[in-house]
Amino acid sequence: MKKAALILLLLASIGSRAQASGDAAPSGTVQTVVNFPVQRVQTPTAADIYCAGFVAKPITGKDKYVTGGLESPFTTRFGQGDVVYLNGKGYELGQRYGIVRELRDPNRYELFRGQWAAMKAAGQAYAELGWVKVIDTRAQMAIAQVEFSCDTVLPGDYAVPFVEKSSSAFHAPMRFDRFAPSSGQLTGRILLAREFDSQLGTGGKIYMNIGANQGLKVGDYLRAERTYDIHAYEAVDMLSTKASSSEVTQTKEPSVNPNFLTKTGGPAIHTADMPRRAVGEIVVVGVTPATATGMIVFSVEPVHVGDSVELDPQ
Question: Closest by alpha carbon to 48, among 176, 180, 181, 218?
Answer without folding.
Answer: 218
